[in-house]
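Question (not urgent): is this output format expected?
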Amino acid sequence: MQIKLRLVDIAEFVRTVESFKSDIDIRSANNGIIVDAKSIISVLALDLGSRLLVNINSSDIEEIDRFNKEMERYGARNAN
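Got this back:
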């Protein structure tokens, strides 16, 4: 799923993803380095000017649905 984060969004984003029991990864489309989305330091190291791809590693349909809804606030859309 593709999102856009601004610097002012990062603390809220990390708090949001920390509320999930599953692992959540995020990466910059520019360099492909995958980091833990629950780590504010790691998220701050990403290229915020590029597309960010975020992924929840879960088979729990309810958690995935909640994740998808939460990501809408960051302009979530499916990555192509």
